[in-house]
C-alpha cells in the first residue's frame, strides 16, 4: 500500500466522512418501520428546535435541494409524522411542523439506537468524548459559517 503524505486536515475530513457513512448505514438498519436516516434527521431537527419551518429553510439547514427536502417531507407527511400547512405570510410557501406521532416515532428511534450508542460509549469514555466534542464543534462551526448558499 503506498504511503500517502496527506495533510492532517485532509485525513481528519476523510475520517469524518467515513464515520458518517458507517453511522448512517447502521442507523438505517436500526430505525423503525423503514424510516430513512434523512427522515429521522428531519424529525430529530424539528423535535430539537421546535416550531414551524419552511421547506427552503429546512433544505438550507440540511444542505439539500428544495426538491429533495420536498420528497422527504411528503414521505413524512404521508405517515402523519409532520404537518404541512400554507405559510400565512407567503401563500406560495409551506410550513412544516412535527406531529405528536412524529415525536413518538422519533423517540422510538432514539430508544432503538440506544444500544448502538452504549456499545460505542464502551469504546470512548466520557472524558474522551468531552475532549473530542469542542474540536468537532469548531470544525462544524467553521464549515457552517463558510458554506456557500
TrEMBL record:
Keywords annotated in UniProt: DNA-binding, Transcription, Transcription regulation
Species, as recorded: Aestuariispira insulae
Lineage start: Bacteria, Pseudomonadati, Pseudomonadota, Alphaproteobacteria, Rhodospirillales
Signal sequence residues: none
SUPFAM superfamilies linked: Winged helix' DNA-binding domain (SSF46785)
A Pfam family annotated for this UniProt entry: MarR_2
One example GO MF annotation: DNA binding
InterPro entries: HTH_MarR-typ, MarR/SlyA-like, Tscrpt_reg_MarR-type_CS, WH-like_DNA-bd_sf, WH_DNA-bd_sf
Residue stretches making up the HTH marR-type domain: 6-141
Protein's name in the database: MarR family transcriptional regulator
GO biological process, one term: response to stress
Amino acid at each position: 500500500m503506498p504511503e500517502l503524505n496527506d495533510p492532517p486536515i485532509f485525513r481528519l475530513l476523510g475520517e469524518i466522512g467515513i464515520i458518517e457513512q458507517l453511522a448512517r448505514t447502521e442507523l438505517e438498519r436500526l430505525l423503525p418501520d423503514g424510516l430513512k436516516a434523512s427522515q429521522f434527521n428531519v424529525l430529530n431537527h424539528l423535535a430539537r428546535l421546535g416550531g414551524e419551518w419552511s421547506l427552503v429553510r429546512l433544505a438550507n439547514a440540511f444542505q439539500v435541494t428544495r426538491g429533495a427536502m420536498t420528497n422527504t417531507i411528503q414521505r413524512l407527511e404521508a405517515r402523519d409524522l409532520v404537518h404541512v400547512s400554507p405559510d400565512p405570510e407567503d401563500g406560495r410557501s409551506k410550513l412544516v411542523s412535527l406531529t405528536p406521532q412524529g415525536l413518538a416515532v422519533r423517540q422510538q428511534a432514539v430508544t432503538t439506537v440506544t444500544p448502538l450508542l452504549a456499545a460505542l460509549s464502551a469504546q470512548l469514555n466520557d472524558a474522551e468524548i468531552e475532549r473530542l466534542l469542542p474540536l468537532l464543534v469548531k470544525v462544524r462551526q467553521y464549515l457552517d459559517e463558510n458554506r456557500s448558499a
